[in-house]
Write the structure tokens for this entry.
Amino acid sequence: SCVRPTAAELRFELDPASKVFRGEARYALTLERPTRILELHAAELAIARAEVRIEGGGQRARIELDAAQE
């Protein structure tokens, strides 16, 4: 892969009475070369939103689930 994570920030909203949780994850990445695809492994997670930021600018990312990998 040409993508290498360099840092992660995770925040969770937990309710001990519930089997589900909410949260947010932010990753800093280093790319060895330009790429159009960033693949994240998120089994059993519902992703509501994804965004890519580069040098202060941002762009909403398209989320596609790979049913064969779930």
Remarks:
- The mean pLDDT is 85.
- The beta strands are 3-13, 22-31, 51-54, 57-60.
- The longest strand covers residues 3-13.
